[in-house]
């Protein structure tokens, strides 16, 4: 199982609509369970951005969350001289991305 992204290529020569599955090319095929993808220009740069929610505030089984978000927070904690970083406490903090 993987996430799919369908690219509308318009009408084919026979008059049928033509779509191509480009999820792997776009890099979104392996981003875990996802609901409600939304295309919008969130940062007002003129290009549509893709926002994909999974319905969970912080999913500890999400390897991207563990690999990137938690790992970066651990590094920052170490830079500040703290050896008492707690993943659970970090995950309970409120995050604001916009």
Structure notes:
The chain is of the alpha+beta class. The protein has helices at residues 23-26, 63-79, 87-91, and strands at residues 6-11, 17-21, 35-40, 49-53. The strands form two sheets. It has a two-stranded antiparallel ribbon. The longest helix has 17 residues, at 63-79. It is elongated and about 65 Å long. The protein starts with 5 loop residues before the first strand and ends in a 7-residue tail after the last helix. The mean pLDDT is 79.
Quick structural gist:
By secondary structure, the protein is of the alpha+beta class. The chain is built from 3 helices and 4 strands.
How is the main sheet built? 2 strands, antiparallel
- Element string (H = helix, E = strand): EEHEEHH
Q: Numbering strands along the chain, what is their spatial order in the largest sheet? A: 1-2
Mean pLDDT: 79
Shape descriptor reads elongated
**Unreliable stretches covering 5 or more consecutive residues:** none
Structural class: alpha+beta
Helix content: 25-40%
The span between the termini is: 30 Å
| Rg over C-alpha atoms, rounded to the nearest angstrom | 19 Å
Number of helices: 3
Topology (SSEs and partners):
Elements: E1 6-11, E2 17-21, H1 23-26, E3 35-40, E4 49-53, H2 63-79, H3 87-91
Antiparallel strand pairs: 1-2, 3-4
Distinctive features:
98 residues; alpha+beta; two-stranded antiparallel ribbon; 27% helix; elongated
